[in-house]
Design a protein that fits this description.
Shape: globular
CATH topology: Aminopeptidase
CATH superfamily: Gcn5-related N-acetyltransferase (GNAT)
Helix content: 25-40%
Number of helices: 4
CATH architecture: 3-Layer(aba) Sandwich
Oligomer: single chain
Order of helices and strands: EHHEEEHEH
Strand content: 15-25%
Largest sheet: 5 strands, mixed
CATH class: Alpha Beta
Number of strands: 5
Strand order of the largest sheet: 1-2-3-4-5
Number of domains: 1
Radius of gyration: 17 Å
Length: 163
């Protein structure tokens, strides 16, 4: 497996995995996520997002150049506040591994490479969020030392049918 930074112009190669990740979230939270977003709009959005200076995408490829998985993280400089010190934070925004490559260490390799790169950039905190239904993601994060520190709860207005 080869790990490398992805050029934002190549973001479309992540689309199948991104669609699978999105579908997982739709299945568990249909009120929160649109069921069938336009693939072209998704690809354009992902390319623009990855072109932002704080965004970084790592991709794992097989020896045959098949995309096995990806991880997107952002680095943010957070200024000191009276209630916390300044910090440089890396936040894992997405991680997805293609089904045929799961349980083969792809996610672990992506997390390890992200952590190495983030530490080289002066990061002092690595963070992420994951849904309660995603035990695999929770386990992966814990295996890399990320432990839950907050619980986020939300309420959503249910769209009312048109009269």
């Amino acid at each position: 497996m080869k790990l490398s930074l992805l050029d934002p112009a190549e973001a479309a190669c992540l689309l199948p995995l991104f669609q699978d990740l999105h579908a997982l979230h739709v299945a568990h939270h249909p009120e929160r996520y649109p069921a069938e977003p336009d693939p072209e709009a998704m690809a354009e959005w992902m390319q623009a997002w990855l072109a932002e200076p704080q965004s970084h995408a790592l991709v794992a490829r097989s020896p045959q150049e098949v995309v096995m998985g990806y991880l997107v993280y952002e680095i943010e400089e957070r200024r000191a506040l009276p209630v916390r010190p300044a910090e440089t934070r890396a936040t894992v925004q997405h991680i997805a591994v293609a089904e045929p490559f799961r349980r083969m260490g792809v996610g672990r390799a992506l997390m390890s490479e992200m952590k190495r790169r983030a530490l080289d950039q002066g990061v002092s905190v690595i963070a992420t969020t994951y849904a309660p239904f995603n035990a695999a993601s929770a386990g992966l994060m814990r295996s890399h030392g990320l432990e839950p520190v907050l619980t986020m709860a939300e309420w959503r207005r249910t769209p009312q049918p048109a009269a």
